Amino acid sequence: MNNMVKTKKKGKKIDLSISVVNIFFIIFSLTFILPFIYVISVSFSSESSINQFGYMLWPKEFDLTAYRYVFNNPKQLIDSYKITIFSTVVGTLLSLLVMSLVAYPLSRQNYRYRSQVTFYIFFTMLFSGGLIPSYILNTQYLGLSNNIWVYIFPGLANAFNIVVIRTFFQQLPVSLVESAKIDGASELRIFFQIITPLSKPVLSTIGLFCVLGKWNDWSTSLIYVRDPELFTLQFLLQRILRDAEFINNMINNMPGMRVSDLSSNLPTEGMRFAMCIISAGPMLVVFPFFQKYFTRGLTVGAVKG
Description:
Elements: H1 2-43, H2 47-53, H3 65-70, H4 74-107, H5 114-126, H6 131-141, H7 159-171, H8 174-182, H9 187-198, H10 200-215, H11 219-224, H12 233-252, H13 260-264, H14 268-301
Helix pairs in contact: 1-14, 4-7, 4-10, 4-12, 5-7, 7-14, 8-9, 10-14, 12-14
């Protein structure tokens, strides 16, 4: 009888602790979900309601004006999506290929110049040439100005990512490589058929970093691109918002004219949040496919130096 009472008490304690943990994580999850709901709500709110009532969890006045302004030129927006998708997909795949091919020999103990090349790569993490030498190199010598490949070639390799991939490769059993060499496999065959399939966690993690970096890139268009057909999505959205803010400021500063009605037709605040939805939407779809590899790839790839 006493054992049954003790068992019931333990069961209640366990149930209570589980409930507390569940409540904690529900509240913790809401801190991430609510800001996103606010972004969606404000993007569908009218500019006048935002100015009057502020940000609300549900739109006070449902309005699509912000999206109409953003999609005013759908062809240019679609072209920017194409450029961004191309640079993201091609740039990520080529970056993973280049960085993994650099990291593989550095992970092998029998590579003669392993220490020297590792130091050279690590040195670039501490010092860089700067913007002006990079601009001269990319435009004058490589001819990448107003070229779609300017989104791909300058950022093919990242020193930190190479070190992470190299460290992950070092964790793989050396016996796999030795047994494959005994069977007559070449280094490229070992890399593509043995090392690469076993390195999905770190490659997926680094791939996610590359995808986010390429997708959110706007500075490359600002510095190197003058052709509107080659603008990335982020730069185009920023340019649309900047133009709307400029027109809004001109209207508000126009002397001797009632501009309250005119300024309310320029939803600059709503456009900020509409652009967040337009630009971040595809990444929200892509991220779940990388999530299962994300933690393992980072921790295993960054434990040892």
